[in-house]
Predict the structure.
Amino acid sequence: MKKISKNPFLIEVERKFGKDSFEYSAFMRGSKKFKITKEEIDDRYNLTLKEFAYYAQVSGFKVLSDADSLIIFKE
């Protein structure tokens, strides 16, 4: 795993929802789910699904995965 200065999961959440949007607030509260594919993670961050899932779990989120994507949510 290469060294990254900021949690790539949080960077991706801000990129997808925007920092000040209602969707961002809903996701952080747990009323919205987030799906990301293997290709998106590899293209943007050069990480595997497992590595990206680790960053999401460290941030306090639950992760469901299959071979091609992750679904991330908060309970």
Remarks:
- The mean pLDDT is 92.
- The chain has one domain: 8-73.
- DSSP finds four helices and three strands in the chain.
- The radius of gyration is 12 Å.
